[in-house]
Amino acid sequence: MTELKTALDGFKAETALVLGSGLGSLVERIQNPKRFPYETLDGFPTSGVSGHAGELIAGTISETNVVVLSGRAHYYEHGDAAAMRTPLEALKTAGVKRIILTNSAGSINKKMAPGSVMQIKDHINFSGTNPLIGEPTDNRFVGMTSAYDKPLRKVFRKVAKKNDIDIHSGVYMWFSGPVFETPAEIKMAKRMGADAVGMSTVPEVILARFLGLEAAAFSVITNYGAGITGSELSHTETKEMAPKGGEILGRLIEVAFKEGV
Ligand code: HPA
To answer: What is this structure's pTM?
Structure first.
């Protein structure tokens, strides 16, 4: 077990990327990858979710140094909303300044079909918990008005437009999982102003802001929310559908880095 900074052995990246369920193919875009299985890194989770590899990869995308977390710990695994706190702290210690989070999500906006990508512009924490519960310092009172960095959102949208990459923008609602929502919950989420629902990312954005890291996040839409089409949801569907949006997202990140984002 090694501390991340020591393991990276002088490699410095200002940007970290966290890959969601079924988005492991983004790893193929990393040049000169150096792989660090989570079990070799202090405090990194050994995730039990299929579709999550559980390794950190250091390398470059479009000549930009990145550390990529393939696999994350979810609240629903052990009931710990702060499960990603130690890895995020390790990223910060290693010199990371901003974090780009990705996930798979269900759409509750008819305009966003499975296979499309949504840039998260804001979130609703509907889990009833928070990763900073128990944090003893006043730093726990984190302002969330600009949680999803506005200039970064704007520049991603600009790059997407310029390169004909279609992305949506919307509000992500965090449900604890692990079960999918009911049709009634999906109707409620829509009335509350959400565009997509999912089981991750929000705790990490809260922790990132707490640590002073800039945050951006994207959802790959794998299905319509429960009750919208009438068919049952499954994790198999999530994993099968994720690569399509993952391809769009991978391209967006590649061109964004190329353009100096
Ligand atoms: N709900 C919650 N999480 C998800 C979904 C969904 O419909 N699809 C992929 N992750």
So the answer is: 0.96
